[in-house]
Design goal:
UspA, globular, Rossmann fold, 5 strands
Length: 139
Amino acid sequence: MIESVLVPMDDSEMAERALAFAFEAHPDAEVTVLNVVGEPSTMMGQAMSLAIEDDIKAAAEEHAEGVLDRARAIADDHARDISTEVAWGRPSKAILNRADEYDTVVVGSHGGSIADRLLVGNVAETIFRRSPVPVTVVR
């Protein structure tokens, strides 16, 4: 029986669908939404702006707040409670570092912009291939 679910979430429609699916498929499970703020690179403008902040953790949490607010609204629509977490770093690595703390991971099939998918790689595919726990990919 699935008791805990990790749902990585960015600002994409697919991530929102993944969260809704997690609620429907696992009605009794505790759900944690994880937003990963990417580490700085020359190709990631928002993450670069975080790198110059005095308090990177606080800046990352502020950056993630919009996504987490949307996750809370989806949870309210499903009459569910969620836990939220913010991580810093490469999304697939940050998600995989936490995956073994949960019974399953539910992830959207893709997210972010086309440039993000081309430059950063397919996060969902990496999670699916390397996760230590079962993964559901939602389209």
